[in-house]
Design goal:
Layout: E1 2-5, E2 13-16, E3 28-37, H1 39-45, E4 61-69, E5 81-83, E6 87-88, H2 94-97, E7 108-109, E8 121-124, H3 127-130, E9 132-133, H4 140-143, H5 146-159, E10 167-171, H6 175-184, E11 191-196, H7 199-207, E12 211-214, H8 220-227, E13 233-238, H9 243-252, E14 253-261, H10 273-276, E15 282-285, H11 293-301, E16 311-316, H12 320-329, E17 336-340
Parallel strand pairs: 10-11, 10-13, 11-12, 13-14, 14-15, 16-17
Antiparallel strand pairs: 1-2, 3-4, 3-8, 3-17, 4-5, 5-9, 6-7
Length: 341
């Protein structure tokens, strides 16, 4: 079959790879309908993430149809359309039993520790734990955005412990940040400030109900302080992964505020703990919870939220090298790129 690999730093190729097969009785094999390109895929290609295996197929966002089922799989049948989160988990280690599947000792991430979704077929591990059926009411192009974009954005809002009437600032309006903006309203946020430097992203954030703040034109922290009568926001969500945005998020919250971090950081960040320890500030970070998918499917199914506008470009699988090149060169024009088979 054909798959997308990164044989050396900065390169993407379509290669012939072995068809996946059932290895464990808890596996299923799925035929990919749509895969998406994530910003973290760029981190892998550019080797900003360590220990990249050049023989692993890329991709962790997918919607697919089951074509083969392991003997121990109880919840799924051949022909069912499914999605899943970016990672898989065993369900029985200490972390899984504590409902922290994102830290599973036997787990991993598709497209990094095992072959991913940017291929014609894919092996899914621990299928009963990790997969969710997609109802007929949801089109493939929305379904592919639930497992990572919506789920990570939703987790960012949940992790921020947003309460009804809270004000929120979201730093970074890429797909995850926009997913967080959409999610803030479910927790009762009164107002959401959306901070970015790309006009197209800010326009979409505004359509999602947020107050857009162009950080290339004005100091977002100063504006937030001004609009909150000098207090700051209750919650800040960091969805970029830079020291500049994390420190701005800390400056933007009020005393007793919370910062929820879901950005991926490539470098250390120095935080002035001597300052913020006096203000009762809470910082939460880590991998996003992987178990929201069934609930989020229901939100999309019942039209409580629409994700389709997050897709900016469409390519075929064999055009994947061109798609990655386009993404790297035209980041300001891109939100979510999908690969259709």
């Amino acid at each position: 079959m054909r798959g997308v690999l990164t044989p050396k730093e900065g390169t993407v190729e379509i290669q012939e790879v072995e068809d996946p097969c059932i290895v464990e009785p808890t596996d299923v094999i799925i035929e990919v309908s749509i895969a998406a390109i994530c910003g973290s895929d760029l981190h892998i290609i550019n080797r900003h993430i360590p220990k990249v295996n050049p023989k692993i197929v890329l991709g962790h966002e997918f919607v697919e149809t089951i074509v083969e089922v392991g003997k121990a799989v109880k919840n799924f049948r051949i022909g069912e359309r499914v999605i899943g989160p970016p990672a898989y988990w065993c369900g029985h280690c200490d972390y899984c039993r504590r409902n922290l599947p994102q830290y599973c000792k036997e787990g991993g991430v598709y497209g990094y520790t095992t072959n991913g979704a940017q291929a014609e077929y894919m092996r899914v591990l621990y299928a009963d734990n990790c997969l969710s059926k997609v109802p007929d009411e949801i089109e493939d192009e929305e379904a592919v955005l639930i497992g990572d974009v919506f789920q990570t954005g939703f987790h960012a809002a949940y992790q921020g412990e947003i309460l009804p009437g809270d004000t929120v600032a979201v730093f970074g309006c890429g797909p995850i940040g926009l997913g967080a903006i959409l999610s803030c309203w479910f927790f009762g946020a009164k107002e959401v400030f959306a901070i970015d430097v790309i006009p197209k992203r800010l326009d979409l954030a505004q359509k999602f109900g947020a107050h857009p703040v162009d950080a290339s034109r004005q100091d977002p922290v100063a504006l937030i302080k001004e609009l909150t009568f000098g207090e700051g926001v209750d919650v800040a969500i960091e969805a970029v992964g830079t020291s500049q945005t994390l420190l701005a998020a800390l400056k933007a919250i009020k005393r007793g505020g919370r910062v929820s971090v879901v950005g991926i950081f490539g470098n250390p960040v120095e935080i002035p703990v001597n300052k913020y320890s006096r203000y009762g500030v809470t910082i939460k970070m880590g991998l996003g919870y992987l178990g929201w998918t069934p609930r989020l499917i229901d939100l999309v199914k019942t039209k409580k939220v629409s994700l389709a506008s997050l897709i900016s470009h469409r390519f075929s699988l064999i055009e994947a090298p061109l798609a990655y090149q386009f993404y790297q060169v035209h980041k300001e024009d891109c939100l979510k790129i999908i690969l259709k088979l």
